[in-house]
């Protein structure tokens, strides 16, 4: 296949970026999207150019490092798949593909297609944990958890923190990500003890970092590679208001 | 000069850890905050260690190359995590878990360490569960278990096929909680270039900031490496692409011995290489061989579609060669058998480097629904990558580099031969001998991080309470920084014609061909020359674009590949020395009449611990004799 690419190039966070056009021949349909970019980079290096910087690591859809805006969609055209799981058979010979970094104020560009997603860890730092020291845990089977509840917690816990939800949202809201973590810990009995403080601390941090609000477009759910549902946002809001009303410890 | 003292406590096996903890020195809580610890790597071992050490009150600095610690490659572990809870009442115990690991490792690991790993496994499950890890449950609300890799009990805790992800996120939540409390400070997007040793003690690291290119000095009273394995030595492997050996290698060059470097597990079933640009091999769980039948055509170079090849023209070679175990032979045997068929020209697919894993008979017998229930997510994953529907035609699989049992040599306290430098998790050599059993790597990582290192490091730091903050202005830091900078400048100055990746691929091929699933004297000897030649070429012809003062992913790779040349050679030297076959290390000269691995306990019941002697010098072999006081050495038998 012959592929035309329009790729966002930006040397660092301080300078302006722009789209640059590339043409790549001999693309095989079996290549992954990132392997196609590897091939482009090999070509660029050999021609004395500067390779395109993009983030990646496990290349099997679980680490959450990769994340590109491809033809206007986070992670490209595949359903429930990360950028690294996307393959070139999803495109046709002669296609033009537009590749951009995540677009969100809270995710500034570091270089080319790499953005700074440390805001996510800042939110988790505020309360995305259960306070139990090593050595203090009770015997595992002393905490009984209903099987369905456990599976529900697992489903939200599969979030890989890639940021596609933020990139998909016109408001750059982080609510799907934050609600997934809050839900996991609010559903499980182990996490209920601190639930009220957790939701308040995490929501406050999310707002402080400049992530936008939710206006119910559901774009986040549509683009989430792990199929996290927006119902979690409703749960987070419920948790938040209950906590505000009930808790003495307002933040 | 470092000496090899494994510091195994006296007394009966089951009392060693208790005795050690009763006698170890403690650090007063008020003193802990004055002691700095550097921790490199944030997989399950690193994250759990960071949180535990932070909880104790130490001042911890954590480094990882990813943008966030929660992306480290423990995240990709699939199957599960073992513990000796005996929830199934099926005869499990700490001793049985210990025994299975010793035997599974083909009697090349240290009894005391393995026993302790089994001993702390139960507390690990308690800890992870309390942190909100959603392990699978029974209807009554208790934790579920499944069986794994040939053992006779059900002791594996799991979260569907994403146990590693869930365990890592649990451990990470503990880490981030300590960041919140101020005991742990995160330094993401950093590569370690040098370990700094002052007066014989590890006192710091030199890092490269991957965003700015800045070379930084960081000091501490002790340094802990949790940097994982070096399976990417083969270029294509099941590991994350940026996994590397650089921190461990710099420790080796500063005096830490390297244990059993050639012991590396090749997993039999990964999705094979599909094109020349392929960068990664994705694992297809071993459990598929419960129902899938492995075959290649009987005719060489038969290029017909798999479904068009009639039954009588198929060679179910595992069933033919191993009628007793059939498709369920152990990992090492399955891998070698696939390689043998493909090397002989019977492989399938465009490259000829693949074998069929066929579910046709299982689907006919049990129905599609039953197969979907068992393996649905794996079938989906396979189709996503290959575009082939495994319900209607066979999967294609091939072995891939997976896990390094070898690693930095450590004593009972997990301290390397450099005082104050520790190695935990996959980065050390200690718990898996010559072959690792499934679901025991997460177990070891979390055990090391939560319960072993927080105890043993205190025994050392108790002697350091009078040591003031280590100054990064010391000449040793100056020297290490200079050496790191010089290496980078040298790499940038080559300005050759070939990409870093092209060298990594060629090195990977040498290692795969001569120091992979099957090894022999002639091949290994040849590999030594080939590695040297390629290394020379690398330093003459590698092309690293850009500069060192910016985010430069090609430079990152170039530094890592330079270190891969070193470990590659050490692996080959180790494989040459060990003239026996054991576990994953198969020396063709040492096999039974039926082609099985033949151990030589009289001559090789030891850990090879290699000492660095300089750039162009041969490393020196030290032997840690393995004493088996509790287990009788037997032949692993699959007949």
Structure description:
The complex is a heterodimer of chains A (251) and B (639). Chain A has 251 residues and is of the alpha+beta class. Chain A has two domains: 109 residues, Ubiquitin-like (UB roll); 129 residues, Orthogonal Bundle (Fumarate Reductase Iron-sulfur Protein, Chain B, domain 2). Chain A contains nine helices and seven strands, in the order E-E-H-E-E-E-E-E-H-H-H-H-H-H-H-H. Chain A has a five-stranded mixed beta sheet. In chain A, strands 6-7 form a two-stranded antiparallel sheet. Chain B is α+β, with helices and mostly antiparallel strands. Chain B folds into three domains: 311 residues, 3-Layer(bba) Sandwich (FAD/NAD(P)-binding domain); 135 residues, Alpha-Beta Complex (Flavocytochrome C3, Chain A, domain 1); 134 residues, Methane Monooxygenase Hydroxylase, Chain G, domain 1. Chain B contains 18 helices and 19 strands. In chain B, the strands form five sheets. In chain B, strands 5-2-1-9-17 form a five-stranded parallel beta sheet, sandwiched between helices. In chain B, helix 3 packs parallel to helix 7. Chain B is globular and about 75 Å long. Chain B starts with 15 loop residues before the first helix and ends in a 14-residue tail after the last strand. At the A-B interface, helix 1, helix 2 and helix 3 of A face helix 3, helix 6, helix 7, helix 12 and helix 13 of B.
